[in-house]
Amino acid sequence: MPRPLKKYIGKRDFSRTPEPRGEAGPGDAGPAADRVAANAGPLAFVVQKHWASRLHYDFRLELDGVLVSWALPKGLTYDPADKRMAVHVEDHPLEYGGFEGTIPKGSYGAGRVIVWDRGHWEPAEPTPDAHAALAAGKLVFRLHGEKLAGLWELVRIGKPGDRQDAWMLFKKRDAWARPAAEYDVVSALPDSVIARPLGPVEQRQPRGTAADGAAGGAPKDHGAAAVRPPVAPAAAADLPGAVRVGELPARLSPQLATAAAAAPARGEWLYELKYDGYRLLARCDAKGHATLHTRNGHDWTARLAPLAAAVAALGLRASWLDGEIVVLGDEGTPDFNALQNAIDSRRGAEAIRYFVFDLPFHDGFDLRRAPLYARRALLRQLLARGRARAGNGTALAAVQANLGATRGSAAAGDADDAAGPVRFSADFAADAASLLESARALGLEGIIAKRADAPYVSQRSDSWLKLKIAARQELVIGGFTVRQGATGEVGSLILGVYDGGGRLEHAGSVGTGWDSATAASLFKRLAALEVREPPFAAGSPDPGRWSRRASGSEHWVKPQLVAEVRFTAWTPAGHVRHAVFVGLRSDKPARQVTRETVSAAAAPAGDGTRGARNGHGGSSSRAGKLKVTHAERVIDASTGLTKLDLVRYYDSVAEHILPHLAGRPASLVRGPEGVDGALFFQKHDEAKSIPGLRQLPARLWPEHAPLIEVPSAEALVSAAQMNVIEFHTWNSTVKKIDQPDRIVFDLDPGAGVAWERVREAALLVRTLLDELGLQAWLKTSGGKGLHVVVPVAPRLPYDTVKDFSQAAVAHLARTIPSRFVAKSGSANRVGKIFVDYLRNGHGATTAAAYSARARPGLGVSMPVAWDELASLKGGAQWSIATAREHLSLRGEDPWAAFFGAKQTLTAAMKALSVAKPPARLAGAGSSR
Length: 928
Known about the structure:
- The chain is an alpha+beta fold.
- Helix content is 19%, strand content 26%.
- The relative contact order is 0.07.
């Protein structure tokens, strides 16, 4: 029978609170009693995030038909050295484990509750009897959750008679333990697992128990508490998000990784080796016939006939596989030149190995919306079955030993060739720094980080990250020189990359990395492409001060060949430094070669693209182990918040703020010395000092330096690393630069205006807009006031929209002169509110939603619902320290309908007697 819940029930008025009542006591019938009587299933655990008078976490373990509960002020951590206070509170009913909602004001525990983690638990040695262990004040147990796993311990530290029953909760040292400096699960995964389910972490990131019982005294567990191997889905239909399709696509564009400078620390990530080979996708039709395709859709089935046969032998139907082909050298690591020779000569194709890492389609199901960990679990299982079917001996053992294990050698994975030519690309549970060091020792190119919960998207995404040991990328060959004393051999290659406008820019040169035979082969191929004029947009590039190339010795060529080059860094002039030739690439068109921008803070939110999250939660991370310069520098003395806090904030809200930044000209407020130092606006970045920042075409604002855009999470976090505190945007998009698609009414209170008056003013502005037939959205300014924002169809020029907003403000000032003033200037608005219409002029900007403000406290401009207005305590109610937690508890986005509301101003202008623009200007860009 369930334990009594008298204390729980006595604290609550169930006519007011939405919390479940649960059972009244022993002998009562109900779900909990039935569950205990039937001894059904494993014991549940849940962790709920609860923002009541303060933010805390409630940790609950099922026992005797109730949830035994502890309140944790700081949440949980995987760091065994960081012990967390846990106050034992009243038992809760089992039904409470699924409760999310708002406990109304005036009720016990009033505030917002979400389910932060859930799963099952079991007692572990040396305390297999949970009842006795809790009575004795020491319980060791194992968790199997969506965020939490491994061994944990609860220890009572309070004494009899204490006002609170105090315990400590901490992580035991095992395969799951991680230092807090490396990973903070509370900040990495802040959201509800009901709204954004992750799936079991032990399936996403399986880890062995080798470390169990290591330093720290955690005992090995050989009984029921041992970590269970993840259960692979039996079929494609079992994967979450799988969608049956009538016909397998004839072509598939691959997902591409974004270059990053550091590994992510937020979110759940899988790490694979970065193979030095060619990307290849394999298609198996409904009859099992296999065709092989490059990343650009070229059919290489005939060129790689032995490999196509090996793929067909796996017995897959209606499937697409994604992977990389390599040739392994004598050291067991990929050899790029050997791969080229095998492909170009069409001899030795049997040496090509296909390392498969993803399964976008299988058995008639589109699996791209399924989380990566689930796709890979099924892929591993299918490859093992396929090899056994094809008669590859002990194929399953070979796959597990060579590639499937999450620990062990970081080599390409093949000590035993019994695995055959098609192999599973292993992922590793070690931390990224250790893997990079192993890859460096083995002479590999680097590793790939992939967000475990991410869907498959056919484009470049920051849910896949390239972590390279050395800089390396493709470059276009625009010219060459002849080797001195060796007619018929190249001496150097003159390189370039295409810019955003499709122009070839000089990127330096390379003169090493080949032998005599390769130099002769390059000469022969390039001589056939020779032209009279240089292909570079700026004409013939200067050899440079230190170049051994004599000006005029160049042979220019059509920019058709692509070279893979390894180098140490980019120079300020945009040239590769200390370049080494690796080989030619035939799998990427020259026109697609652009300079890879490496995120200063390792990526992907979010999500690389909006919609890439697929509802599987988990924050992406670009901040990770970022080498933030002066990370510890305090940028706000009033709170002690640091530059690193700011970078991590923007990392965490990337998916929220980017829709408000992308596609709009931006202005940046930089504060190298913090909010108390000198601040300056930046509207241009001709020096390209911020990675990822986009320089817009000069034609958008003639006679000015090019405008800038913050188009990606990479640019956002890189800007924060470069001391950008605020992000401001224009009211128009790049597509219609002279026709604003929103109107901003900035409520700016003068001296002596109480906050209640500011809230009242927002309601009055909304009332006026309602009467004019316009729907408006509300956000805090992050400073003293509020912003009322009206989305409109981009049809009218700036001057007309500004005239309308000025007319609306003048109407308010005439109608309620005791509250509003229509003139700017601090002297004019003492005791009143100036509704700033000047934000609506051409080139004017407003702080974007979710932007921090460069003021003491580092407040955030936060979108809110109108029914939240009465509870707002100020324009800077949320700061970079609290905003992300607020978002995790917020529920629905109050601005969800904002971007779809394209309203017209025709009736509103008529009501305020605002003249229409001349027909030749309406719907057309101005001459600015």
